[in-house]
Every structure is written in C-alpha cells, then in structure tokens.
Amino acid sequence: MGPHPAVAAIRLAVRRVLHDVLTEHPADPAAPRDAHPLVLVACSGGADSMALASALAFEARKLPVRAGGITVDHGLQDGSDSRAGEVADRMAALGLGPVEAVAVTVGREGGPEAAARDARYAALDAAAERHGATAILLGHTRDDQAETVLLGLARGSGIRSLSGMAAVSGARGRYRRPFLRLDRQTVRTACIAQELAVWDDPHNSDPAYTRSRLRHEGLPALEKALGKGVVEALARTAQLSRDDADALDTWAADAETTARDEAGALACDKLSGLPPAVRRRVLRRAVIAEGAPAGSLFARHIEELDRLITGWRGQGAINLPGRVEARRQGGRLVIRQG
User: Fold this and answer.
1) Cis peptide before 321 (omega within 30 of 0)
2) Rounded to a whole number, what is the largest CA-CA distance in the chain?
3) What is the pLDDT of residues 230-239, one digit of tens each?
4) pLDDT(267) > 70
5) Which CATH code of 3.40.47.10, 2.30.30.40, 3.40.50.620, 3.40.50.150 fits the domain covering 5-226?
6) Please, are residues 299 and 158 in contact by the beta-carbon 8 Å criterion?
7) DSSP symbols for 34-52
8) How many CB atoms lie within 10 A of CB 3?
9) What one GO molecular function would you report for this record (predicted)?
10) pLDDT, tens digit, for every residue of 81-127?
11) Pairing status of strand 332-337 against strand 324-329
12) By Cβ atoms counted within 10 A, which residue in 16, 57, 115, 120 is the most buried?
C-alpha cells in the first residue's frame, strides 16, 4: 500500500525540485556523501514547513543530496528559544543534518512583518554561506501565494507585485518553493497522515498582522462571495503576471540601451516613444543603477520621474530615495547621486 495521497503529493513536489537542483549542480553518485550538494529546509515548526522537512528527508535518501534544516528564532515570544530547540530536534529526528537553530534580532523598519522577514532571510542567507548550501527550501503554499497577490493588489504597485512569490528566487536561485502548486489543506493533511508534531504560531492568527487578517477574514469573505476557486485563480494570476512582468523587464533592458545617446545619457525623445510600461521600467532601472534602494522606490516616484519625459513644463530636479536626483537638461534625463 502506497503513502497517503497528500504525503505522495508533497514528496513529488520536493522530488521535482531536488532533480532541478541536481540538474543545475550535478553530483557524482559514487562520490562520498559529504561531497554531495547540501539542500536546507527553512522550518518554523508549523505544518507547512514540517511537511516540507519530512518530504526532503524522505526524498534526499534516494538521491546524491545531503539534506539539513535551519529554524530561526525571532525572539518575539516568551520561550521562543526553547521552541526553536524543539524544532531543531524534530528535524534531526527526521534524519536531517546539519540542523541548526539561529537566533536573530528583529528591528522595526518597514513594520513588524517586514522586519521579521528581513531578519529571517538574512539569517537564512548567512546559514547557507556558513554550511555551503546549494539551495534552501521554503514551505509557501498556493494559499500563501493568493494572499501575496491580494496584498500586492492592495498596494497598487503594478504587475510585479501581482506576480507573487517566485518558485525560484534569491542569489543564484538559492530559494526554492516546492509547494506553490499545493493548497494549505493538502500540506496539513500530510502532517496528520505522518503524525508529525507541529506548532501553530499565534502570530498567524493575530489580527494585528495584515496577512493574518487577510487569511482569516479577507479570503474567506472573497470565497463566500465568489466561490471556492478564488485561491486557485489568484495563484494562476500570479503566474500569468510573472510571465508578463518578465517579458516587459526583458524589453526594458533592451530599450534602455537604444534610448541612450552617443554620450550614454538617456535621451528624452527616445524615451517618449516607448510604451509607458516599458518606459517606466527603463526609468526604474536607471535610478536603481545610480544608487536608489529598490525597496524604497515606489510607483509615485517613477510617475513623477516619468512626467519629466511626458509632461515637461520646465520642472526642477526631483529628489529620489538614496539621495538620488533626477533632472531634465538639454533634452537628456540626468540622474546622479548627490
């Protein structure tokens, strides 16, 4: 008798990702095991990441891959250090190794959710470098993707925000998300079927957090009004948006070259002939190249910059994040850091 269908689903999803990793980083099956690529799972102890840890441990045994785990203690709740230790012990019991619990200090920049995320990813990046890991698996599901799309829609910051989370992201494709095509219920069922102990983070149901309100109030309301296919439709929107955004980014990269004059400056007449979606991407790329932090550059900044091209009325210089200044001068767009 085979595994429970939910268990089979999570294992297949992880197997596909491990095959992708091995295609990109071939391993000699005859080489000593400590020479095989290392894949880590980021595990909070919740159902999604525990299911991922169990699937990684199972599939890695059959492949020339080493499998380990990292759990991050954000220090935001009493007893979080001991809980992180318990999660590390559970991963070790699954057969993962190396296993590590890492404590971080969460700042305040960007709000509590963003600050915790930034601290977590910094810790995961450092762990990957420390252990020489080829990839880190993250347990985001299709439901998480749907929530991300809705949050992007609420921000009104364009098609890239609607693209949600990529299946592969980070430096050198470090982060992999095997469960983006699986719903949260399937993943939780896999934990129950395997009798995995899981911990439900109270922050996930705390209405003080935007994503929590969306999960427990917003999405259920949408499903009640529009039907049960909302999550799947939003996830499909993310993929379609990502494909479109990638194509526009490629177009913009080519257009930036042709929009420059002999001296290498952006020529306003050449920019004005581009479609708005492409032109704004060219402008965004240009100001980031001059030192503007991408995370601080919002749609309103690009719209104001775009008016130097499409609505020129003799405006003065525009101040952008990162002490970057942009001005129109002699038919050129001059961007420099002050």
Assistant:
1) no
2) 76
3) 999 999 999 9
4) yes
5) 3.40.50.620
6) yes
7) GGSPEEEEE--SSHHHHHH
8) 14
9) tRNA(Ile)-lysidine synthase activity
10) 899 999 999 999 999 999 999 988 888 776 777 788 889 999 999 99
11) antiparallel
12) 57
pLDDT in tens, 135-176: 999 999 999 999 999 988 887 767 888 899 999 999 899 999
Inform me whether the pLDDT recorded for 202 exceeds 80. no
Q: Please indicate if the annotation marks 48 as binding a ligand.
A: yes
Please count the CA atoms within 13 angstroms of the CA of 15 that sit on its side-chain side: 10
Q: Say which CATH topology domain 259-337 has.
A: 3.30.465
Contacting residues for 129 by C-beta, under 8 A, at least 6 apart: none
Q: Are 180 and 140 in contact (CB under 8 A)?
A: yes
Q: Which two tokens stand for residue 324?
A: 């970057």
Task: Report the mean per-residue pLDDT for the chain.
Answer: 91
- Count of other CB atoms within 10 angstroms of residue 335: 22
**Tokens 């960007």 sit at which residue?**
110
Question: Residue written as tokens 């069922």?
Answer: 189
Backbone φ and ψ for 182, nearest 5 degrees, come out as -110, 140
Q: The pTM is what? A: 0.86
Residue 70 and residue 127 in contact, taking contact as beta carbons nearer than 8 Å? yes
Residue 80, marked binder: no
* pLDDT exceeds cutoff 90 at 62: yes
- Letter for the amino acid at 333? L
Q: Count the Cβ atoms, other than its own, within 10 Å of residue 79.
A: 8
Domains of the chain by residue range = 5-226, 259-337
Q: Is 45 known to sit in a ligand binding site? A: yes
Query: Distance between CA atoms of 304 and 320, rounded to whole angstroms?
Result: 10
